[in-house]
Amino acid sequence: MNKKYFISLSIAAALTIGSLPTLATTASANSSVEDLKKQQGDVSSKKEEVNGKINEKKSQIDQNINKQKDIQSQIAEISTQLKDTETKITEKTKEIDETTAKINKLKADIEELEKKIEERNELLKERARAIQEKGGSANYLDVLLGANSFGDFINRVTAVNTIVSADKKIMDEQKRDQAELEKKQAEVEKELADLEASKANLESLKKDLDSQKAKKAELFKQLEAQQATLKVEKADLEKESEELSKMEHQLEGEIQAEQARLAELARKREQERKRQAEAEAAKRATAQEQATSGGSSSTPTVTTPVSSGTWTAPAHGTITTNFGWDTLNGKQRFHYGTDIAAHGSVPISAAADGYVIKSHYSSSYGNVVYITHSINGQTFTTVYAHMSSSLVSTGQAVNKGDQIGYMGNTGYSFGQHLHFELYRGSWSASHANAVDPRQYINF
Length: 443
Hints:
This protein is of the alpha+beta class and about 450 residues long. It has helices at about 25-135, 140-145, 150-290; strands spanning about 320, 325-330, 330-335, 340, 345-350, 355-360, 365-375, 380-385, 390, 395-400, 405, 420-425, 435. It folds into 2 domains: about 25-295, Helix Hairpins; about 305-440, Glucose Permease (Domain IIA). The protein is built from 3 helices and 13 strands.
């Protein structure tokens, strides 16, 4: 999530032809500082926003860590429950095995008891058959009456009572053993059913705990992946914040450099004004001295009135060539400017508020000055060629009507005149942006 910010803030590059500055006036020059401060404010706001996101990511990371700890605690608790449940299942399995062994032993006892019951049943059946064969209970009376003596009678009574008591005992034992058998069967079967139900519940609980543990493990895995993503996002934001901090420092340096440059321009401009004032004072003194001595100047100074509005004529004189097609030395050519001719010492003025982007000598233009202008958001460039001398230097700010030099006949020229060009945009050797100065200026 890397973001790059590129801000071109170089003012020095605007001082070359073809890269025109927008600092045409003192106000526009000051606006460059304001623009830089605005950009710095925007960067600071962006940095504050990014730092806020960094804090948010830190909070999310902390919350994620807490969730991971909570999940680990839950997994540990579930693992403990699983271990306890597995122990209980083992115990229940052992109890079921023991109970099953009891049941198997009981089955053997039951089989033995069933044999005894069967034997008793056979004995009772024999008794019943004997009674039926002897004629029922009357046979006991025959036994008693058949005694040979009183002692024999007593013996016979005792024997009969013994037989009757034995039959009754066999029947009572039969009932008791059957009841005991039924009771033991019910108890063991219930115990086994309870153990199996308990084991089933434990196995169900273990299955549920295994499912919970698997879900918690999956959630923990998701939290780990989320944590890794949050760390990457936080690192990207920190890198972005660092880049914004560098931009803040860079902009602060740009602001200080621009303020220093503007201060230096103001100082140079003031020096130039003083120099021009001194030159004008010297000229006036010379003219007054000539007038006092009765002499006359062979090169009278021609003043250039300053028009109201945005533009003014750069010089006073006669228009000798207009913008467009004309004939020079018998050949058709396209003239990319307006020529103004006059005799004497003719000052050349800046046609509008602007900024000198170049002042030098050219083999074709002679002494030439290029000025850039920013008017209603549109950049213009004016060119003043063939001057006898230039009074301004590169980087100097000028106001409309400020004197920048004198009309001359330097370079590729045929007589004293000012060759004036106006461009909507930047100057180029192809004159691609050249326009007729009369569109904007009344000469």
